[in-house]
Amino acid sequence: MSSELIVFLILAAVGVLSGILMITRPNPVNSALFLILNFMALAGLYITLHAQFVAIIQILVYAGAIMVLVLFVIMLLNLEDEEPLREQMSKRHYGSLLVALLALVLIVQVIGWNSGGTLETMREQSPHALRIGTVEHIGSVLFTEHVYPFELTSILLLAAIVGAIVMAKKRFP
Amino acid sequence: MMEQLLTDSLNTAPITGMVILSLIVVMINALKKEPLATEYWVSLVGIVINIGLAVWVFPERGTAFSGSVMTGGYASVTAIIFLTAAALTIMLARVYIDKIGANFGEFFHLILFVTTGMMSFAAGLDLLVTFVGLELMSIPLYVLAGITRRNLKATEAALKYFLLGAFSTGFFVYGIGLIYGMTGTTKILDIAQNINAYSSEPLFMVGAGLMLVGFAFKVGAVPFHMWVPDVYEGSPTMVSAFMSTGVKAAAFSALLLVFTATFDFMHSSINTVVAVLSVASMVIGNIVALSQKNFKRMLAYSSIAHAGYMLIGITAGGGVSIAGVLFYLVAYMLTNLGAFGIASFIENSDQTGTDIDDFRGLYQRHPALAVILGVFMFSLIGLPPFAGFFGKYYIFVAAIENGYTWLTIVGVITSMISVYYYLRVVVVMFFQPEGEQVQTARFGREGAFALAVAAAGVLLIGVFPSVVLDWVSALF
Amino acid sequence: MIESYIPILLIIGIAVIFGVVSINLSWLLGPQRPYREKHSTYESGVDPVSTAHYRFSVKYYMVALSFIVFDIEVVFMYPWAVQFRELGWTGFVVMSVFIVVLAVGFIYELKKGALQWD
């Protein structure tokens, strides 16, 4: 086994486990903490894919800022314990479980056709694959080739500011 | 480089103009005391100027910002549709927002943001633009749906719309990710050049399918329609109006651009899926609409059915279908905005009073409103000489030309079913006596003007369809 | 390639070990004579009343949300700063437009009093 595979397996295991723990904890704050662990594992996976910029953003924005927001929402809602909200497994739940499994089989089947994507084949398929995630490369395409979606993002953020104030500010009826 | 950016911004003048307009209106709100009237007029005049800009750049067909966004032609025509919908919405809502207590300028800001998003969504030739446009269209709408924060039904609608909308956006982004993974580019035109090679790649087709799920959610086609009735019924009426016309038009325009005009999935499995969505939407939308007691809820199911008719056009594909769907969008936009507008006029201040029974005796109280609503209902059925007739006619013709006669047959049969519930509204308005609680319609000069424009449009397009058809034909 | 991240892994490892060791060490070394008063919640020496859970005001949420929006703005500046020379004046203009749009949002937020506590 190569060191890459070992790192991937560890990170993937942490990611999946923390994801499962996140949705099964009765205490919402515990869920939030497992979500942070999940974000960390994802950031590690991004690094193994040579997407350093995305990995750093994952930690800075998601594990940092967004988690603060999630915790504030938990405190805003003041959920004591989720226990009374829990439902028993019904026929409907088993149905959705079945659909999810079907989707999993489909994904495995489809991706299985294109398996064997190691870093070596990645390097062969696209010579840029290894430097595409660096900050330099993102800087050089984001402000030239993708300048339009970039500027549109600023309007989206402005809309988010206005929307948040309408939703949360006391002065509005 | 700098000159290029400047030329590109000029060629995409309607979108650039909307961005500048949004900034101006937000600044007016921040700096002026009592800004509501100013914001209203600046928004309205700005939108009208932008319609002018869209007409002005119509001949500049091509792409801008290194192939990220389309200019002229198709982009102009779709921009005019969205801008018209936005202008009519804010005029019809001018008095309405006072009535429901949402009389602050943010209502107009959010409408402007949504419109900017729609224009980018429909003109995006880069999957990134399509995605950011979709988000810019959706996020302010989640807020608009719940803008009356004290109203329980509206808040519920907003939350439901937000959760399901975010979920469907997840599908959409996943699809974009798979397509990027397979092709190594997000530029739609680059992908379209090798579309035949990609069409045999399962991962690419899964990506396209996931994008289709996102589109189907936004247009409210049947397996993804669960949110439509609750959200349209719960949201403030003019917001529902804008959702059912503008958002649907934007999602269909983007779907046409990506799936029909550039990827051209004419004979692939995607086409079969679209046909199934179409039949399911027409049948379920029309049949469930029969038993609705609330006018807004009935229009919600009717909008599902109309999404089904337009999906016939997507299935058929080709230039005739593109023109047909765009024509349908114009007709549906004018008709439905008007119908929702009248419902908003007679609504109570606590956002109740939109049951079909509340329309009893409308003819005695407001004969003009009753007659105009009758016109809209006939247009929704698709009877000549109203706009809706030619919308259906062009789509059915395109479908028959491309060998989808069976879809046309389903369309005609379900249209006949729809006659019952549209006519019921007409019967209630004209022939049933008034109830005990009489609601007086409040709409003001702005509302009356906008309603007159919508009604005149429906009649004009119905009598002279070539006025619109010339604009929407041969855009590529 | 992966090997170049070993120092970071080491730092994470040291941080985890430090945390685990120091908490457990104080538990091991400290004297433990628990009784009921000592285990009760500390409320300035007064007997505790009700729970520590209470609903936080939505104002905290506003602050966190503004933070995220401007955090994202800053995130976009990293790649710009790295490629500053190559992008030249075009990059400067592009970034200025971005910042001006968000500055409008900031002014709006200030005027609406979203950053005021009351």
Main sheet properties of chain C: none
State the CATH class of chain A. Answer: Mainly Alpha
Helical segment count of chain A: 7
How helical, in percent, are the residues of chain A?
A: over 70%
* Estimated radius of gyration of chain C: 25 Å
Name of the top-level CATH class of chain C:
Mainly Alpha
Count of individual domains of chain C: 1
Strand content of chain A: under 5%
Q: How do the SSEs of chain C run, as a string of H and E?
A: HHHH
The number of helices of chain C is 4
Task: Return the CATH topology of chain C.
Answer: Methane Monooxygenase Hydroxylase, Chain G, domain 1
State the end-to-end distance of chain A. Answer: 62 Å
Compute the separation of the termini of chain C in Å: 52 Å
Q: Which regions of chain A have little confidence, pLDDT < 50, spanning 5+ residues? A: none
Please identify the structural class of chain C as seen in this structure. Answer: mainly alpha
What is the name of the CATH superfamily of chain A? Answer: NADH-ubiquinone/plastoquinone oxidoreductase chain 6, subunit NuoJ
Q: List how many beta strands of chain A DSSP finds.
A: 0
Largest sheet of chain A: none
- Average of the residue pLDDT scores of chain A: 82
